[in-house]
């Protein structure tokens, strides 16, 4: 494959490279990786929209979904000096959803939030119950999104001008479809220079077992 060939060249398997050659190959490898990401996102989006991808729904605890998401991104957040906080309580109703789809939703939202939050900022996961839905939110204290970009933020290949380190431009379109095919909705609120909040809903899957909630000192809620 193209990436394997580029990797072999970068690692020097075919001979030593000078500084300019190495820089060009590293750029080529980054571009190849981004192209592969775009193709994978497009394929997944097409499968969802065509109905080819079948969901496997089950009853899931909101606090478990949030904890697993935090665990996946804790190292990345720490490497960027961003505090990742789980504010989800265990007494929320369970949700009826596809575990892998919810994982994909959180992964996209958290990677965006951490990437666009500056040093010593915060990314907070929260959840509430209202109107027969469980609403999850991913809120950051980052750079925010200019108002003119918000109406099209969930469109394919949508990009925010002036922001660095962007992805494929398909992540939020994919998130929106994954939420909608599970009967939910997603919305965004943002203020430039103050941060952004993405909120999505999932259908309830039944009441939570009776439990006693204990607040942890590190900001995470136990259950």
Q: What is the mean predicted local confidence, pLDDT?
A: 81
The domain tally reads 2
Radius of gyration: 20 Å
Helix-residue proportion: 25-40%
Q: How is the CATH topology of the largest domain named?
A: Heat Shock Protein 90
Report the principal-axis shape. globular
Low-confidence stretches: 211-219
CATH homologous group name of the largest domain:
Histidine kinase-like ATPase, C-terminal domain
Describe the structure.
The strands form 2 sheets. The chain has a 5-stranded mixed beta sheet. Strands 1-3-8 form a 3-stranded antiparallel beta sheet. The longest helix has 32 residues, at 19-50. It starts with a helix and ends in a 17-residue tail after the last strand. Helix 2 packs parallel to helix 5 (171-180), helix 3 (62-79) runs parallel beside helix 4 and helix 4 (99-115) packs antiparallel against helix 5. It folds into 2 domains: 2-50; 57-205, Heat Shock Protein 90 (2-Layer Sandwich), CATH 3.30.565.10. The chain is globular and about 65 Å long. The model is unreliable at 211-219 (pLDDT under 50). The protein contains 5 helices and 8 strands. A hairpin with a 3-residue loop joins strand 6 (186-191) and strand 7. It is of the alpha+beta class and 223 residues long. 28% of the residues are buried.
Layout of secondary structure:
Layout: H1 2-10, H2 19-50, E1 57-60, H3 62-79, E2 83-86, E3 94-98, H4 99-115, E4 122-130, E5 133-140, H5 171-180, E6 186-191, E7 195-202, E8 204-206
Parallel strand pairs: 2-4
Antiparallel strand pairs: 1-3, 3-8, 4-5, 5-7, 6-7
Helix pairs in contact: 1-2, 2-5, 3-4, 4-5
